[in-house]
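In this notebook, the sequence line spells out the residues, with the fold written below as integer tokens. This is how one looks.
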Amino acid sequence: MTSNRQQADRIALYIHIPFCKARCAYCDFNTYAGLEDDIPDYVLALSQEIERAAQRFGGLRTSTIYFGGGTPSLLSPRQIETILRTVHEHMDTSILREVTLEANPGTVSTNRLLELRSAGIDRLSLGVQSARNCELRLLGRIHTWEDAVNAVAQARQAGFGNLSLDLIFGIPGQTLSQWRTDLNSILSLTPQHLSLYALSLEPGASLQRRVLSGELPLPDDDLTAEMYELSEAVLHEAGFFHYEISNWARCHGDHTGFPMPDLTEASRAVGNAQARTTVISNPPPLISERVSPYISLHNLTYWRNEPWIGMGAGAHSWFDGQRSANLAHPRDYTRAILEKREVVVERETIGPRLEQGETMMMGLRLTEGVSDDRFRHRFGCGLADVFERELNDLSSLGLLYWDGVIARLTDNGRLLGNHVFARFL
């Protein structure tokens, strides 16, 4: 049995940067506006936490590094370089395959991006969110569509060949036709990777308050589902592999070799029930990163429920059979680190049964699904040994493909993913 505990010699490293120029209208992340003056001390604290983690766990090999936020691009390239140098000095980076930095299109320039490339960033994730300025204002973004176009051009000039763009759909007032136009606008920027998220009205976010007050219309669930299906069709036609529920990666050549249905007809008739329930017949096993070189390797660690360590304010870790979280506020976190106090405020031990359930829940988000062989190698038992009833029930409902070899969501299952995932927990 090779559970999370035995895989811990290879980790993904997440580094949280909780600073923003302004808080977006939909955001409920652990981010703070107006604290940019705290960044130098925060970088110092991050470096010390990385050193502590290396000393505590020893011998860990870091396969991916991800700077998330917040807005990591608010840090100077020299500050990013300082953090990365600390990682290289105190952790084994001999198998490092990917270093990603999230950036706001309104905070970059060609020179800044050149310096980030020189510091070691090789994958850039730009939070574009919309191709329409009216929607960007509604979402509380500080950039315009023109800023996003310029940021992409600057990233290319700086040598970034692995560029990911984030988009939001289901925005109040957004139409299906507008979303199709937005997709075409984004594709014109030739990204290697796309993350598409349905707008979520998070408690306490200003956008939720405006919807609840009646100032803005409530997003339509059926229309949002149609936008999602249209995305599948348009991006498949454009040569993207839909490898995770919300993520697509560009493939080389004719993008054959992965079991995606031809959704061209579905794009012409998104209301057609038969098109929406297209089921892949006898899909062969596959490994996501072999289908496209632009898969987010770091996020693949999360979806396969493999170990990662989070550094920074509010960062979470899943390591050695235990889930943990740091102090949330950057000032509290920085003070605790610099005073050599403990920053972990939450710990939860994950037993084998919960680990198995979470491995199913996360793994089913992937088009590759969860293979019986991989599950058996990790836990010493097969999928049916643990989840026979769930697999059979969901298969009979047309939400899951299961043939004794691999379990994965059908097209309908993707639309009802939360219902499926709940069955395994």
Q: What stands out?
A: Residues 254-282 have pLDDT under 50 and may be disordered. The first strand starts at residue 10 and ends at 17. Residues 119 and 306 are 27 Å apart (CA to CA). The chain is about 40% helix and 20% strand.
